[in-house]
TrEMBL record:
<dbReference type="InterPro" id="IPR055343">
    <property type="entry name" value="CREG_beta-barrel"/>
</dbReference>
<dbReference type="Pfam" id="PF13883">
    <property type="entry name" value="CREG_beta-barrel"/>
</dbReference>
<dbReference type="InterPro" id="IPR012349">
    <property type="entry name" value="Split_barrel_FMN-bd"/>
</dbReference>
<feature type="domain" description="CREG-like beta-barrel">
    <location>
        <begin position="23"/>
        <end position="187"/>
    </location>
</feature>
<protein>
    <submittedName>
        <fullName>Pyridoxamine 5'-phosphate oxidase-domain-containing protein</fullName>
    </submittedName>
</protein>
Amino acid sequence: MRFLIILSALMLGAETIAQARETLEEAAAFARQLVNSVSIGNMATVYPADHASLAGEPFSLQEYYASCHVNGSLTLLFLPISRHSQNVLLSPTHAASVSVWSDRPAASRPRVSLIGNVTVFPVLEETPDREAIQACYVAQHPDARWWLPGPREPHIAYWARFDPHSVYYVGGFGSEHFIGNIPLEMYQNASFPDHATEVGVGGRVLVTQD
């Protein structure tokens, strides 16, 4: 009996979401705008299978990022000393997720989770669009100028790119806002036209990627 009650509640919740006034297209635009308007999120990775005590356990911590790409990929500073970086490098797919929420977190406020993988550029001179990426990143994180990749950083650092392949969005309460997965292509094209280079939110230079 209890199972039927729970099942009915879940079905009612699904129906409520389906009747939300916020459309999928609107949710994609709101999700993209949210990620673009914030530059600090929460990254989650997984300890490698051969870790001595935490094999397979999740690890989550605050992470800087910058929205520098037309298609919604994120620019990261990748420091091998960090736990996240170690987990990413030891993951067969370099998997990670990044969650972002509004500046006033609440149950009625939007949040989004991006699941994807990280591409690291270990050779500084071969980093795609390096000057534009660096300018974009420092514009959002002025304090990061002290640990940028190069000969003077306190720790070894590389540029990296986070490419989402799955987007899950919670706009707020389901009776009014969309809750669920957003198609990747719709998310990528939600805010910016797909052309080579343009100036984005807050003057950030947005670049395409190969």
